[in-house]
Write a structure and sequence with these properties.
about 800 residues, alpha+beta, nine-stranded mixed β-sheet, 26 helices, 23 strands, about 20% strand
């Protein structure tokens, strides 16, 4: 007899001593031995079965030695035969079992086949087994059987059984029949009262209490149970797919692929997912998660306007939005003259595929679910019907994914185009909510103006010094290169064809070259490029056909031109790379530093990229919506700003040797001690100062970096120094403390006390200009910490 004994039986404590007994089967046979059943067909066989039991009383009294199952194999098979009828042997998945131990000893043929296909190393183990829960379950069984207290805590048990034939997993739910069981209390079993029962109801998780009321081995179980397994692979996969789609982690496609492999019992089934962009008529990757699209096959996108798909797929999938199945890729290839789609599938080893279009957006975008197999006819028009219960789940997930995709796009737009800083977002939501409530009853409802009063401004700037001169120099050098190359081509043309026109053109090009070298004026580049395209390039097109040498010369010239701009764009490209590198580094750094600054006290922050980086900050109680503002937070933010400017100077200095252009930055801080109001300008979608008096602050911001030191021609902003612009002496005293602190950290050096020339509409400005001490091997991660700044301010 085959006995399947779980390894858990020796690991789990139970309130029951387990004995295998067939008394209740004996009672049924004994019933049919009565004289009243003499005419019944079971009567004679019942007499024989009762004799068999009488010859082997252990079968009635019970035994715990499982070796007796082998000894009485013939007898047990005989007496259990009515429970395992021959016509159902290949249909039912059934076995005789010992409850709470998962040990089974009598199987239908179908059950045996399933276990045989599972492999020799498979262990018959319940999936959601929990030792303590099993103890409580046994106790509730006793409460019901012995004391008549019914508690329904039954949970379905599941068995995951591999199928070696298909290389997939099958999932089964177990149902237990305990009608052939008896439970007998021992002397060690405390009697359970109604009060005990109520106490247990309130302490399900208190295993010690359950063991107190039902001590280990305090009851005797005699009998056996019947376990029936039901194939729930489809239901399990549907549930698992739902769970995985809800989780939506980085391994989503891999998990769903495994789900569908078990669902279809296809070991090598593949799953892919792509987006059909209706607006641009192309298939592309989803931007939310990596989709491993089978259609794309590692391409970023496919243009559907090409002859990639056949007309059938184009109509059924992209127009009618219906599922399309190809059972045999080779047959499909013959009917489509081996189009690009066939070639892609063939090269990927795909022989059958299902394409399921799912509407993703109102604009007509589709999510394409791709299910494929390396074997022909694994996927076909018949088994596609198995997906009917799964597709709605995918539709729900696609809707959520499309929303996530939209959120990603919205976030990108918010971050890069019309960002609303988190510190003030609450006020916009407040205004929007008020507007929507009012608009329900008032057609003339208007959005509130967003104004924050009594906030203190901070402005900082790290500007690339001499950027205009560097840009003009780059333009000049590129034009010189282009004109020189043109002259070289014309010189060689003169040697081949003695035409006076070549000399005349060479003279005009040389004149332009001379003018550019002398001085570059506005409009010169446009005039020169126009001249070259109108007068020179037609000649080039002619002379390149004269001989091979001239053709090579013209090619050299043309290869030096930028393909989009049609000009030499080498020095300017180097200049732009240098500017972009500085901008990206400084922007990223201050954005990361801002995260720490917001922890000090929430404040408004906005940053701009110019030729360098500049940023505005506003701090005050009206921004936080809390009565918690104190001047110490303003002082702390000012120190943070100065410290951050030092670090940005070090970053820019360290970049100098790595860039095509050796660019330097000059930094500036503008101090303004009086609170002001800022207002969100709906037309410009940004904050600006509010009130005529505050306009002066904006004027200073726009002009201050061009100001000279009073009585000199020297700009106040210089590389290697930070200029702190102020108008009140108390501000200078405050910043001197911060400078002294950073001097103690060897980050700042000598201070200059300067006055500025008067600007248009602004006079009386002064400046502290302090030297930056550049750190050798500056490390962005090892800078002054938030705690250091807080300690300095509190001191």
């Amino acid at each position: 007899m085959k006995i399947l004994e779980s390894s858990l039986i020796n690991e789990v404590e139970l309130p029951l001593q387990l004995y295998i007994s067939f008394r209740k089967v004996f009672n049924v046979f004994e019933k049919y031995t009565n004289i009243e059943y003499k005419q019944h067909p079971f009567h004679s066989s019942a007499l024989e079965m009762v004799k068999l039991f009488e010859q082997h009383p252990e079968l009635i009294d019970g035994f715990s030695d499982y070796s007796l199952l082998h000894k009485y194999e013939y007898e047990i098979n005989l007496l259990l035969e009515p429970l395992f009828p021959e016509p159902l042997q290949l249909n039912e998945i059934k076995a005789a079992s010992i409850p709470f131990s998962f040990t089974s000893f009598k199987f239908t043929d179908r059950f045996k086949n399933i276990l045989s296909n599972a492999g020799d190393d498979y262990e018959f183990t319940v999936r959601n087994f929990e030792g303590e829960s099993m103890y409580v379950l046994a106790c509730t069984f006793i409460l019901s059987f012995v004391y008549g207290y019914n508690i329904d805590i039954k949970r379905p048990f599941y068995f995951d059984i591999p199928d070696k034939n298909t290389g997939t997993m099958k999932y089964y739910r177990a149902a237990f029949n305990g009608d052939f069981s008896d439970i007998i209390p021992t002397e060690n079993a405390p009697k359970i009262t109604k009060e005990d029962f109520r106490e247990l109801l309130n302490n399900f998780d208190n295993i010690d209490l359950w063991k107190e009321k039902f001590p280990v081995n305090s009851y005797i179980f005699k009998g056996f149970g019947i376990i029936n397994l039901f194939d729930v692979t489809s239901e399990e996969m549907l549930s698992s797919i739902k769970a995985n789609l809800l989780a939506s982690d980085d391994n989503l496609i891999f998990k769903l692929q495994n789900n569908l492999r078990d669902f279809y019992a296809i070991k090598n089934l593949k799953l892919g997912y792509s987006i059909f962009d209706n607006l641009n008529d192309k298939i592309c990757e989803t931007i939310v998660n990596k989709s491993n699209s089978i259609i794309l096959n590692n391409k970023e996108e496919i243009n559907c306007s090409s002859n990639y798909f056949c007309e059938g797929i184009m109509q059924k999938v992209f127009v009618d939005h219906e599922t399309f199945v190809i059972s045999d890729i080779e047959e499909y290839g013959k009917s489509t003259d081996k189009n690009l789609f066939y070639q892609n599938l063939y090269n990927s080893g795909i022989q059958s595929i299902i394409l399921i279009p799912i509407k993703a957006t109102k604009s007509g975008d589709l999510a394409l679910l791709e299910i494929a197999s390396p074997k022909a006819y694994d996927l076909n028009s018949v088994n596609i019907n198995k997906l009917k219960d799964i597709i709605p789940v995918f539709e729900a997930a696609v809707k959520r994914t499309s929303e996530e995709r939209q959120n990603v796009l919205e976030a990108t737009i918010q971050e890069n185009y019309t960002a609303i800083h988190n510190s003030v977002k609450w006020r916009f939501y407040e205004a929007a909510e008020k507007y929507h409530i009012e608009s329900q009853t008032n057609d003339n409802a208007k959005l509130d103006e967003i104004v924050f009063k009594d906030v203190y401004p901070l402005f900082g700037q790290s500007d690339i010094k001499g950027s205009s001169d560097a840009r003009n120099t780059a333009i000049k050098e590129d034009l010189v290169t282009q004109l020189t190359l043109a002259i070289s081509v014309l010189k060689d043309a003169c040697k081949t064809e003695k035409l006076p026109i070549y000399n005349e053109l060479m003279y005009r090009v040389s004149s332009y070259l001379k003018e550019v070298k002398a001085d570059l004026n506005a409009g010169d580049e446009i005039n020169i490029v126009d001249f070259l395209q109108r007068e020179i390039y037609p000649v080039f097109n002619h002379i390149k056909d004269i001989n091979a040498d001239l053709s090579k010369k013209v090619s050299i010239y043309m290869n030096r031109l930028d393909t989009d701009l049609n000009v030499v764009y080498e020095k300017r490209k180097d200049y732009e790379k240098s500017v972009n590198l500085i901008n990206e580094k400084l922007s990223k750094y201050i954005d990361n530093k801002q995260k720490d600054a917001q922890k000090m006290y929430p404040h408004y922050f906005e940053r701009y990229k110019t030729d360098g980086v500049e940023f505005n900050m506003y701090i005050g109680e009206s921004i936080t919506k809390k009565n918690s503002f104190d001047s110490i937070y303003l002082y702390n933010l000012r120190l943070w700003q100065l410290q951050t400017m030092c670090e940005m100077e070090n970053i820019a200095y360290a970049l100098a040797g790595t860039m095509p252009h050796n660019l330097r930055v000059a930094s500036l801080v503008l101090v303004h001690s009086n609170p002001m109001a800022i207002k969100f300008r709906m037309d410009e979608k940004q904050f600006d100062v509010d009130g005529a008096y505050n306009i002066r602050y904006e004027i200073i911001k726009k002009r201050i970096d061009k100001a000279n030191i009073k009585g000199t021609q020297e700009r106040i902003t210089q590389p290697g120094k930070i200029a702190i612009i102020y108008s009140q002496d108390k501000d200078a005293l405050e910043y001197i403390k911060y400078i002294n602190f950073l001097q103690s950290r060897k980050q700042l050096g000598k201070i200059e006390f300067l006055e500025l020339e008067d600007l248009q509409g602004v006079s009386g400005l002064k400046s502290l200009r302090v030297e930056v001490i550049y750190q050798k091997d500056f490390d962005e991660k090892k800078t002054i910490t938030l705690n250091d700044l807080l300690k300095e301010i509190e001191a």
